[in-house]
Fold each of these.
Amino acid sequence: MSDSRVSQSPGRSPRRALPLNRVTVRDAFWSPRLTQVGDSILPYQWDALNDRVPGAAPSHAFENLRIAAGDGTGAFHGYVFQDSDVAKWLEAVAYSLNQRPNPELEALADRVIDVVARAQQPDGYLDSYFTIKEPAKRWSNVRDWHEMYCAGHMIEAGVAYYEATGKDRLLDVARRLADHIDSRFGPQPGQRRGYPGHEEIELALVKLHRVTGEDRYLRLSKYFIDERGSEPQFFDLEAQERGDPAAGRPYDKSYSQSHLPVRQQTVAVGHAVRAMYLYSGMADIAAATGDSTLFRACRGLWENLTHRQMYITGGIGSAEQGEAFTFDYDLPNDTAYTETCAAIGLVFWAHRMLRLDVDRDYADTMERALYNGVLSGISLDGRSYFYVNPLEVWPEACGRRGDHRHVEPTRKPWFGCACCPPNLARLIASFGQYIYAEDDETLYVHLYASSAGRFEIGGQSVTLSQATDYPWDGAVAIDVAVERPASFGIAIRVPGWCADASATVNGIRLALERVNRNGYVRIAREWRSGDRIELEFPMTIQRVYADPRVREDVGRVALQRGPIVYCLEEVDNGPNLPSISLPRDATLTLEGCDASLGNAPCIVGTARRVDESGYDSVSMYRPKPPIFDDVSLRAVPYFAWGNRGAGEMLVWIREG
Amino acid sequence: MSDSRVSQSPGRSPRRALPLNRVTVRDAFWSPRLTQVGDSILPYQWDALNDRVPGAAPSHAFENLRIAAGDGTGAFHGYVFQDSDVAKWLEAVAYSLNQRPNPELEALADRVIDVVARAQQPDGYLDSYFTIKEPAKRWSNVRDWHEMYCAGHMIEAGVAYYEATGKDRLLDVARRLADHIDSRFGPQPGQRRGYPGHEEIELALVKLHRVTGEDRYLRLSKYFIDERGSEPQFFDLEAQERGDPAAGRPYDKSYSQSHLPVRQQTVAVGHAVRAMYLYSGMADIAAATGDSTLFRACRGLWENLTHRQMYITGGIGSAEQGEAFTFDYDLPNDTAYTETCAAIGLVFWAHRMLRLDVDRDYADTMERALYNGVLSGISLDGRSYFYVNPLEVWPEACGRRGDHRHVEPTRKPWFGCACCPPNLARLIASFGQYIYAEDDETLYVHLYASSAGRFEIGGQSVTLSQATDYPWDGAVAIDVAVERPASFGIAIRVPGWCADASATVNGIRLALERVNRNGYVRIAREWRSGDRIELEFPMTIQRVYADPRVREDVGRVALQRGPIVYCLEEVDNGPNLPSISLPRDATLTLEGCDASLGNAPCIVGTARRVDESGYDSVSMYRPKPPIFDDVSLRAVPYFAWGNRGAGEMLVWIREG
């Protein structure tokens, strides 16, 4: 097979993610979820946004926009960022329509967009809170009041809806909103040298630039990123200007990543979602402008985050207070905050890093977050959600304020602060865009799912058709279809979890020992239709150990198979899960699929458990060593936990 | 030795604790501490109460009383219960004077008492907060405003100062204050059917009854206990009466143990200090009245507390929120609240239970709390204090709000809420009263410390002189001195931690295998001067295991020797203490006394530690099992931790 070679991945010219409208997902794992988003989740969430879900926290989000549009009367209700829930819902609708027509949903979205458009003010301003409640305070507290955050989400929605339907009404709203902001913020005389307290608009403006071709949106995004953290500090000036009585008191600028200019930041700090959105915007600007200083800053932050501050589930942000990062290796399992939105943000950032730098570290992390800490946020039926995704849950302790206030033992139908549910909907609906990428010489396969990607390379259209039972089986077949034979590369990620991958092209084995250090195999040859790449990533049940500086996990083991992290649940293993230990030499086997867990295979084996009998009548503390009994153990995918009633859950199992 | 026999301990006629003025402590462990209280701690605390300690949280406590007495001007500062700090300080002075004359300290206390007496109002009311700040609100919120709590402490001080010095000025203040309260609260028409939100006065009134002989104080105490939790709920009525806007909202009555009548309570709930003071009062009333229903309630609460909700250190109340108990077996080590005052309260309660029921369970627990969770609250130099006594500390995490806000890595010179420091002073100064008890037939030895107790039995004075190096050595010699030969019993506690005790009387071995199930050996014979009891409680280094329902401690071991619980400190063992594991077969030996730890012996041995090298450049999570290195381990007494700078601390060590 002289025309195949395994080579280094190409340099740092940015790759283009294959957009959603060029990817078709037909996958046993993902397609039901995509269908569920359109058929069930988005209608359900629409009901929640309109306060029609019994027992759910009230939203009022759409009603606020109706009032601002003059269609309703009454008071604003909810958080200052309530509009963003509607924006993310519209964006999710767009991705869903992009993948699968749904005239009813589209008609509903059109009606929503009509209201949004009429809620926009003549000068382009759009934020129902300030329009209804405090019009005089517009733009007076960009640090705390989320106007730019809401704008960013509305811009993303406008771009996505335009790309899905060709309809530009919401895109026009987005443009006028961006123009309004562009006129007010920037370095020119009469403009405010500011930037948002909650980042988001940066990445949104890059999308707006992409579909409109208008450079000023890219410039404004870059301005927000370049200006952030510079002296004199905008948030201080702004607080003084508005006569904030707290202006003299210290504000922890690291909370909003504005403590330093972004290029000087080396440690992931502050509110985890804000951080992910900022770093995503930084990566976007690095890709759009070729700014290597921004790439280096992103790389440093990435290494800090993924080597020191990330849970095995891809959950990030361990502290409830500030929904924030704390410090290196501080990853408690039972009080972990690990907001669903933060794991989603990590997917966004990882995906953008892959554009800058082909390294499986990004794709592995994207996959880790996606299949674990993101999907754990939503129930299998799509109708209940975790805001917080700890790695150990004891339902009785969840009521304990002071340290467990934020931990819920069961998913909720909605939240007062409902950022996560529509964020999940838009991520799942847009799953297809994370699979493939391309540049002028290479097609990239980042993720594995049965799907087809339609690429443009060398002046022709090329299709890769992927067939796999991932994430439950590591066999992947990729069929190549070209208009005419052509030479280019296909770069395939060898997952970091897989130690003994093998691959063939048309049945001929590739020398995978030459996989480059970045974890991608680039197969360069003249491709013809009918060529087939077959990959085998054997999925063994792996015992995974944490960096021992994560003190919570020392002496413990997690079970993983492929990209899926497993956990123990009380419903399978009885109460007091921490009393279970797994001997190092215990045999673990795969058990057939469980319908109540979305047909996921489970892991079973024999473990040991401390005998709890005979303690009631004696001292709690005694010199007699505990007695261990053999017990059967059953582990289920972490993302599927909590779908069978309330109970304990545990990821990190004692070993020994 | 036909005249010696080991018999059941006597029945439930209450024993009398041997009061402080009949006990002389001359002990290598305790005497330096008693001296330190008089010479250093009480003067230091006086400075703190007068805001003369640089860097300490302000108190203003004495100044408030001066203002109320007309000696000063200005505003009240501090908590509504600020007076109680002065009251406890006076009580501690009294105990110290009782043990050891100190004319200077006595003169100071007399001056303080003069101010307190003049701060008392003509009607007997005494509380500087309401006198200075809100006189119209006296007695309008007994639930929250601590007037009875402050009164209780002032009554205790008055009794103690009278017993130590014979001076009755503060006792008169206490009587007038108690009379004032007695006139206002009770079942008679015109009285309020109330009881305090923060219990304390119940046990104080029993003391006042003891020294004055006035039955009405005992009746009032019993009334508070009997009335507590009855319907209609006083705290609800009171809230309605004062027009509290929160009156309609639920108040968690379990916080103040008023959710049920006390005789129906079976689980220790709510604010841990309040609970201990209530249960102490219940035991006092049970002893004073022979009320077996109260004893049974105490016993049920005791079993719940000590078998399900107590740390190995005797620390209790695991939750920061409400400084409270949570639920059975919920004993996190790193976020433990375990207030010093709660462990002190447990000593009070255990001591009172011993009056009702001779069972070493009480004395063992009293000893456990005293030598571990109480003494940990004070530095070896007596000048800094822990309010919170966790069993695992990671200084970096102490700043983490949301779950570690309350945990301090180092003791503080004082607190805004400074209940613990003077509580420590009064407990240490009164240590002698916990050692011995007597009834009409038996002398009891509950604790071991070199000391002499002067008993009255059979119409003569009997002295037991105890010599020991406890808690570091388990050999105890007790010499008996009688005026004339007499038959009575001497009941000696065999500590629960000791599995192979031996004893002789005049060199003749006792059959200790016949120790009764309550853990006391009663030696009945005709005692003559010169008789000597020798006890040997071999102190081995013990590995102690927790009830496995305490999930935080499963797979872990604590080290204990005699009554002393040990811990690891970073200064001896390096950082990341949780990465250390102790093989079950590791040899542990005692190391000579360490002057920097108050001459405590340490425990040393060889343990294992996860090798932390080689993780920085790889994924945080990987299938490679960790490598263990042999390391030397050094454990120090828990009470002495944190005396050598800030650093990590850990009680429960992974085993294996």
Note: The first helix of chain A runs from residue 30 to 49.
Amino acid sequence: MNSTEPEPARGLTALSADEVNATLLSLTGWDNTAGKLHRKFKFADFSRAFGFMSAVAIQAESMRHHPEWFNVYNSVEVWLVTHDVAGISKRDFELARRMNDLYGNP
Amino acid sequence: MNSTEPEPARGLTALSADEVNATLLSLTGWDNTAGKLHRKFKFADFSRAFGFMSAVAIQAESMRHHPEWFNVYNSVEVWLVTHDVAGISKRDFELARRMNDLYGNP
Amino acid sequence: MNSTEPEPARGLTALSADEVNATLLSLTGWDNTAGKLHRKFKFADFSRAFGFMSAVAIQAESMRHHPEWFNVYNSVEVWLVTHDVAGISKRDFELARRMNDLYGNP
Amino acid sequence: MNSTEPEPARGLTALSADEVNATLLSLTGWDNTAGKLHRKFKFADFSRAFGFMSAVAIQAESMRHHPEWFNVYNSVEVWLVTHDVAGISKRDFELARRMNDLYGNP
């Protein structure tokens, strides 16, 4: 999401750095990069990378929460943040977990 | 593909019914339905079904060979045939194998 | 959607045949085929057909209402029905209108 | 594409800065940013942005040439370069023109 996106925060709050770090312990592959949840996914080829993005896109819209993501060929790099609360919220972790599920990570 | 699709057959021939049946023995999940390779794929939800379709779409266009397929929710039903040769060709089996690879079947 | 899809009807009712026909008058390209809203969309090529399907897929999931659709090459044929009410509901018309918007129809 | 992508250059050469600038004159919306063709596309919403990406993805794979692209919500930013020739080639302009066609630009 960005500032132009009609996305209500619905009582979300920014998690503290300690809360973010503690939650990251149970989330395969993600880190906190400059205040955003961040992960780089790798695939066997472009078709698999984009198939993953399509599945994520459908779930993200349904959550009314959209990733910032960069793709080239078999790589998909993602940053998640909740602009309404100027930080990382539970919603970012929910989308991160859904991405991991779609990727096949526990 | 259909009759309006600019897709050259490049020396393909229709396989005989015996050849089709023999090749089907090593292809998980597919059958010969009314002269077309046919399989019904099931997924956990719509986002996974459509993510699969996106990956297949990218590979299919690259092969210049397109499936006939029907989707509702978590189900994707596929029929493959080569209209230029009025039958099932090696190209149909190649696309079927790619779909199985993307689905996770051996 | 189908019977296995967890999709609540939320007070929807089946529209009468007269209501369906009256509403169809303002909906470009759709008809009532065997009790389902039905339209066949045509595109310049496969990539445009599938790009349309991707946009629709994202909106459909967000509505928790999924089309039955068949694609081959540049053609996308759609049937919409609300199984929970055993008929065509307002939700089918909403998805039909969204598809027309994405297709560029008024 | 990137260095790990199995993509032959097939006699492509890097265009000179003058050639790039001259060709850009007839290409709506693109510029030369740090040695890559670059454009930012805007859409009405996320579903349209991602539908565009899906159509582009199908054509890009078919060309064996992939964009570097960044998406958030209704924005798609693209960079095109041909790593095999360490510069901008005719292939980048071809993909840029296809993107413009899919976007609806002349």
Note: The first helix of chain D runs from residue 17 to 24.
Amino acid sequence: MSDIQSAQRRGRGRRPAAEVRAAVLKAAADLLFDDGVAAVTFDKVAARAGSSKMTLYKWWPSPGVLAFEAYFDSTEHRLSFPDTKDIEADLLTQMTAFIRLLNDQGSGKLIAELVGAAQSDPALARALSDFYTGPRRQLAIDRLRRAQEAGQLRTGLDLAAVVDQLWGACYHRMLLFREPLETSMAKTLITNLLHGIAAP
Amino acid sequence: MSDIQSAQRRGRGRRPAAEVRAAVLKAAADLLFDDGVAAVTFDKVAARAGSSKMTLYKWWPSPGVLAFEAYFDSTEHRLSFPDTKDIEADLLTQMTAFIRLLNDQGSGKLIAELVGAAQSDPALARALSDFYTGPRRQLAIDRLRRAQEAGQLRTGLDLAAVVDQLWGACYHRMLLFREPLETSMAKTLITNLLHGIAAP
């Protein structure tokens, strides 16, 4: 019996799928943050997570997609969206956390490379929208809609466009200019958009 | 004497550098729009432009950089920034042309792939900022500053952030969501940002 098989069968038998999945995502995230995207191979992840490589092939279409899911799994809690009933304050809290995440430990560089690679890799592009951009945009839209219902935002807004003008502005600065994002940019973007830039 | 040498020496002798440069950029743009980025090789461009490959090596660090410059050289006139003294109307004119350009003949796909590749190619990233994002942002900032001086925009604005919230919003939609851009998005983005999204 191989090491991997013994790991699978250790204890009271086969581990539940959810447990294996969590171990795989953790192993992939560790490799990713320690050594970058290229270090996330099915071989290395399987060995580190004590899972079979077959499982990885079954669950993830490519190591890039696994790396992507691991990245967002490990950072999701840092990007949660508060609801204190004050949309301006809540946007500031969330966007400041978002910019800090991009600035930390090369996260910005990682996400820039993943978004970059997705432009010519359809599987990665799908993973990007399934695991990250789609769900995160929906969370933001949900919070913005509650603010609208509470009378804090104008009615009739295209809320996806609002997302483009807040978080999208940060991605633009990072992807097209490779300039560092200051956390103060959060307040600038929110103030501009909520109160307008036209002279009063 | 090779075909290329005869082409160079045809007529009254060696062609002026500006003329060769224009011919090279046109040849590269033709290849790029007909067959995509991968078709732009120094061999093919030199043959089509009747220039020496040595000249191309001397002037451009890589075929990708040449492709990039050719792209923007051929599209620049479509992105000129009007000044009718009405910033809202001028933004609408320019951004509508910008979105049309992205939608036309695969231009959006091309620029998405170039921006994507730039995330892991420092020479391409430099070309991107030297030939495109840098100069185009400066043109927008110049126009926005004149609007500020004319009393149409608030004072104290971070004008680079305004660029992030208008054109950057379009890039965000395209690069992170791969969703088609409607020309109506121009008016949405401009109205949101100029007049604010907070309830009155």
Note: The longest helix of chain B spans residues 122-149.
